[in-house]
Amino acid sequence: MSIQRFGKWDFRAVDSESAARALARLKEQGAPAEPERAAVVVLLREAPLRVFLLRHAAKEPFGLPAIGRADLPGATARERWAHLDVDASFERSGTGPRGSLYGFPGGRHKPDDPDVAMTGVRAVEEETGAMVALQRAWARWVTPEYEPVRFDTWIYVATLAEGFQPRIRVREPEYATWIGPEQAVCQYGGQMSMPEATVLAELSRYSTVGEVFAAAEQREMAPILPRVSLREGEARLVLPGEEDYPAGALTRALPRQRSAFDHCTSVRTTSKPCLR
After folding, report:
1. Which residues make Cβ contacts (< 8 Å) with residue 255, sequence separation at least 6?
2. Closest Cα partner for 193 from 141, 133, 146, 127?
3. GO molecular function of the protein, one example (predicted)?
4. Secondary structure of residue 139 in the 3-state scheme
5. Is it the case that residue 17 has pLDDT exceeding 90?
6. What is the DSSP letter of 245?
7. Residues 4, 174: Cα–Cα separation, whole Å
């Protein structure tokens, strides 16, 4: 995850005063909140390569889940960002339910979901009325520890079953469109969560769905937990493996997963092709 800038957007910049408040909030909380599992699905089609982008009716602080802008999903955007006391400059750091203005179908893992991969399949059907044909895990982002509501979010890339066209089925999104990944991040990157914007920047490297799926097969699904780094008065978000990232932070922060295959599950039914 080396992408820090794309076009005019700086994915890592953080207001220093907001950073100080967020770190103080974490200290007051004591132990970070345990993250809930969630899934986000980036629907793909070609040619050329396009993603299905949703625009939410209202921008709310902290969404990406409003990740006000930057991260991962759960249910509606309002639910995702129910804790609206988060600083706007951090909205882009989340992963899971959020208040970002633009994003993708997704939601919280529910008890009836066999695994988090099927959470994404269910969310797509509920939000768009469409059925997933093929799905691959692309990334796993975890909401920063300073957030009172946190998500361990698997981001998937997927294609739709033949004959299905996505449409808005829930009241909250006000607009949806197929758009190129590069155009989406260049035009709307500042109104998305950092994880979603980062995924679009990564997808902009590819020309076909086949190329995206081939790349997904080679990706490591290690969790990405943004942390705040303060150096010489400048605050930035840092990711695992980068300079200034605390040693052992991920080990301390994340609960043990139930299954190593939660993100990559094969399911055969009479109505759905094999998912992975």
Report:
1. 34, 35, 152
2. 141
3. hydrolase activity, acting on acid anhydrides, in phosphorus-containing anhydrides
4. strand
5. no
6. P
7. 29
